[in-house]
């Protein structure tokens, strides 16, 4: 029989593809933005796609600028619902509105693979937040189904504070008394029914002592023996993972998948933190990448590869302490703080990198004012109300305006806060808004929505009762000419 060459080539392709998928691995990162010196999201997305093996990121909000930037990159994004927004999303109409505003405008062009509902809610000990957590997860899951979105999972990250104090050795791991059957069994039942993962944030960094440093860093050590199982643990990460697994098993849900939503080690600390240094950060994160991608699993979960997100992508200079500011794998200029084998071909993007292949430099002559990533919707709504009552033209963010979509508080606040900043003088204090604004050199304009540029004056009417933007056509022509000048330079 004559062989069809197309079928032969197709067979070879699939053979290669699946053999590659079987051996390939990837590690995700938490992309935090509590900083005022980070590159624009579009530059970050290009860098991750072209220069690293990282194929998934987790963000701590649903920032539309970031979601737009990752469109078409193939990099999966986990978005986060702020803790303060969890109670309101426990009702289906609010959840549907949230999905309509934060998921549907971007997915699937931007691959949104998960929604993290809050962050370490149980650790807050806020009874209202804890009570509304599962209802919000269920409502968001239902909202996704009603919108015919079936490939976005719903979960919530937990700190290891969910475990009882006597959860060592790993076989004795159990959820905190009073939370096991009331809180975690129902959450795990939701995960089982929806085939979504249980997210945890294991941090050996918070659990080590001087005696257990090597144990925490994956360095050679005598290990910790579990008398119940007869298993020996040679690293704290495995012990923490198996303690969570044991807790899940005790309530009958050891079949639910586990995702490592956060883990990391800072590369610098205060003088009283001698073990917080570059060498130990490299040891922990470098060995972690090798360990979780090996497929070896843990003593109680052998032969498993865990989806893992390192904290964090960048050093974030607005965090409160030295160690918190130095969790990043990369500096804001995209050069690595240290190499954990996520750069393609082991090539670091540094001062000696090929300029032709490096992302274009940011134009620092222009500045805009946008919301901080940790600003709540409540605070941002107050900013909108204030700006629009101060004589600034808010028509662009009203229904039918070029900046109305996406119809979210954060997106509207971003436009309004910048309009105020430009209208009343681009000084830093005009972008403070009660510590909810931050100045950026990344143009937040998108599609038909053009944000005023620094130097583009907003004109007041003769009566002084309103502020109007320059003619939209003039702005469009100006921006187009600017873009063309860069392209043909």
Comma- or semicolon-separated keywords:
alpha/beta; TIM Barrel; lipoprotein; disordered C terminus; 15 strands; two-stranded antiparallel ribbon; 489 residues; 2 domains; globular; Glyco_hydro_17_plant; glycosidase; glucan endo-1,3-beta-D-glucosidase activity
Question: How would you characterize this protein structure?
Answer:
The protein is α/β, with parallel strands linked by helices and 489 residues long. The chain has 2 domains: 28-330, TIM Barrel; 368-440, no CATH class. The chain is 33% helix and 12% strand. The strands form 4 sheets. A 9-stranded parallel beta sheet has the order 5-4-3-2-1-11-10-7-6. It has a two-stranded antiparallel ribbon with strand order 8-9. Helix 4 crosses helix 5, helix 5 (127-146) packs parallel to helix 6 and helix 10 (377-388) crosses helix 11. Residues 367-451 form the X8 domain. It holds the Pfam family X8. This is glucan endo-1,3-beta-D-glucosidase. It catalyses: Hydrolysis of (1->3)-beta-D-glucosidic linkages in (1->3)-beta-D-glucans.
**Percent of residues in beta strands?**
5-15%
Q: Say which CATH homologous superfamily of the largest domain is assigned.
A: Glycosidases
- Elements, N to C (H/E): HEHEHEHEHEEHEHEEHEHEEHHEEEH
Radius of gyration: 24 Å
The profile of the biggest β sheet is: 9 strands, parallel
The residue ranges in which pLDDT falls below 50 over 5 or more consecutive positions are 5-24, 346-364, 455-489
- What kind of assembly state do the chains in view correspond to? single chain
Which range best describes the helical content: under 10%, 10-25%, 25-40%, 40-55%, 55-70% or over 70%?
A: 25-40%
Distance, first to last CA: 59 Å
With strands numbered from the N-terminus, the spatial order across the biggest sheet is: 5-4-3-2-1-11-10-7-6
Tally of individual helices:
12
Globally, the shape reads globular
Q: Would you tell me the overall average pLDDT? A: 84
> What is the number of E strands?
15
Structural class: alpha/beta
CATH topology of the largest domain: TIM Barrel
